[in-house]
Amino acid sequence: xxxxxxxxxxxxxxxxxxxxxxxxxxxxxxxxxxxxxxxxxxx
Length: 43
What we know:
- It is built from two helices and no strands.
- It has helices at residues 3-19, 27-42.
- The chain starts with a helix and ends with a helix.
């Protein structure tokens, strides 16, 4: 997976969170998701 793909996936995830706030993802969960994404990007 290219860095560009990861950025697109991240932007899509952020967009869906903004559109569906009823899910109420906590800041901690969002942070964990970001960390997991960047860990994957390092490989």
